[in-house]
Amino acid sequence: MAYIDSTTTAWAAGSASAYKHDGSELTVMSWFCGAGGDTQGADAVPNVRVTRAANHWDVALATHAWNNPLCEVWKGDIRRAPVDKWPVCDIFWASPECPKWSAARGVKRDFDKTLQGQIDFDEPEFKSDRERRAAEERSRALMEEVPMYLRGVIARGGLVKAGVVENVIDCRDWDDWGRWMAEFDKMNYDTWVFAINSMHVDPRSLDHIPQSRDRLYVAYAHRSLGRTPQWDKWILRPEAFCFDCDEKVEAVQVFRKAGKDMGRYRQSYDYRCPRKTCRAIVEPMVMPASAAIDWSLPGTPIGDRPKSDECPEGLAPATIARMRAGFKQFWGWGEEMADDGQDSLFGDTSSAAQTEAGPLLVPTGGTWRNHAVTLDRPMSTRTTVETDGLALPPFLVPCEGRDGKKPMSLTDPLRTQTARLETAIAYAPFVIPMRGGGDKEKARHISAPLHTVSAGGNHHGLVTASEHLLVPYYGNGQARQLSEPIGALPTRDRYALVKGSFNLDDVLFRMLQPKEIARAMAFRKGYKVMGSKRHQVRQLGNAVTPGVAENLYCALYEAITGEELSRFAEGRGPLSLLLAA
Question: Is residue 357 over pLDDT 90?
Answer without folding.
Answer: no
